[in-house]
Write a structure and sequence with these properties.
The chain has 351 residues and is of the alpha+beta class. It has two domains: 204 residues, Aldehyde oxidase/xanthine dehydrogenase, molybdopterin binding domain (Aldehyde Oxidoreductase, domain 4), CATH 3.30.365.10; 105 residues, 2-Layer Sandwich (Aldehyde Oxidoreductase, domain 4), CATH 3.30.365.10. 32% of the residues lie in helices and 19% in strands. Helix 4 runs parallel beside helix 5 and helix 6 packs across helix 7.
Length: 351
């Protein structure tokens, strides 16, 4: 499960927000679940929960709301909406270090080494794009590998930071190679190595007595809407995500779709029941993982509000894909039957 507790916290907060809106409607106020969010979102100059002052890129959250507004307002059936925020980088006074090593091989190809893990998120693709952009060397001549040793050490593989930060290390290494290519052919550079390192150490621990306690480098934002049909079946998920610069839009959309699928399983059916810390069942099917055939239509809207701290303005999209999903889905089911869901999963089948 991606998110490190953010998904559960977001579900609780977004459900409480829906409850407040419902109470206000009971008191005669004309406010829906979209309106209460738009009135209370973070804005530039406002402080985050940690005290950090939000920068101009927080406008990405408003842009996400704007992107889903028409479909949300026009849909007459049950619908739910949820906002999400996820940090980029480890933060909290921990140093973020990224290293990339480019080697020129004997067949005039580049070997690109990074300490980050490629687990299907498309990191190798964006590193190739970044280096190709700077050196004008075709991606077909590049071979990216994940390897952990001193020259590529990148710390822990968490915090949705690989695209944002590792592309900066790749950029610095590629710039050194590009400089040599001004006066030499790639063949003449065989055997040379180009090292790029990007270090960020500007964050502080929450509660640090400074005017602007920067606990994280950047934030990604998202708004998701869940639509049900007249029978209460999940019909569609609309997802608007501010990812900074979308280095590879197709990969970004794929990450969001995969995150939503994971979030739907988390919301609807998936669980790992135990009794006295022992699994009740060892059968994979009893986890009730959501199948691909049960995934509703997903529409992804990519919002680009580039962040200066990241490579080419990227902020990352790894974990935030499912942060708003549970709140949106349970909000839609409340509109369908007027029953609050305060525990997940909400539709697990008994076996």
């Amino acid at each position: 499960m991606r998110g490190f507790g953010v998904n559960q916290t977001s579900f609780a907060i977004e459900t409480c927000l829906n409850m407040i809106a419902a109470m206000m409607r009971d008191d005669g106020k004309e406010i829906d679940d979209f309106d209460i969010r738009e009135r209370n979102i973070l804005r530039e100059g406002k402080r985050f929960a940690t005290g950090q002052i939000m920068t101009k890129t927080v406008i990405g959250l408003q842009k996400c709301l704007d992107a889903v507004k028409e479909q949300y307002k026009n849909y007459k059936g049950p619908k739910g909406i949820s906002c999400g925020i996820k940090n980029t980088g480890i933060g909290n006074a921990l140093e973020d270090t990224c290293r990339v090593l480019i080697r020129v091989l004997g067949d005039e190809k580049l070997e690109i080494l990074t300490g980050f893990t490629e687990m299907g998120q498309g990191l190798f693709t964006v590193l190739t794009q970044a280096i190709s952009e700077i050196t004008n060397i075709h991606p077909s001549k590049m071979d990216v590998k994940s390897i952990s040793y001193d020259k590529t050490k990148c710390g822990m593989t968490t915090a949705s930071r690989a695209t944002a930060l590792d592309t900066m290390a790749a950029k610095y290494a590629a710039e050194k190679l590009a400089e040599d290519l001004r006066n030499h052919s790639l063949k003449e550079l065989i055997g040379k190595e180009y090292h790029g390192e990007y270090v960020t150490n500007i964050t502080v621990k929450p509660g640090t007595p400074v005017d602007n306690p920067i606990t994280h480098l950047a934030f990604s934002y998202a708004v998701q809407v869940a639509f049900l049909d007249e029978n209460g079946k999940l019909k569609k998920i609309l997802a608007a995500h501010d990812v900074g610069r979308a280095v590879n839009p197709l990969a970004v959309a794929g990450q969001i779709e995969g995150g939503i699928h994971m979030g739907l399983g988390h919301t609807l059916s998936e669980d790992f029941p135990t009794k006295k810390s022992v699994p009740v069942s060892l059968k994979i099917r009893d986890l009730q993982i959501l199948k691909a055939k049960d995934t509703p239509e997903i529409e992804v809207i990519i919002i680009e509000e580039p962040e200066e701290i990241g490579g080419f303005g990227a902020k990352g999209v790894g974990e935030i894909g499912l942060v708003p999903t549970a709140g949106a889905v349970t909000g839609a089911f409340y509109q369908y039957d007027r029953k609050w869901r305060t525990e997940l999963p909400i539709a697990r089948k008994k076996r």
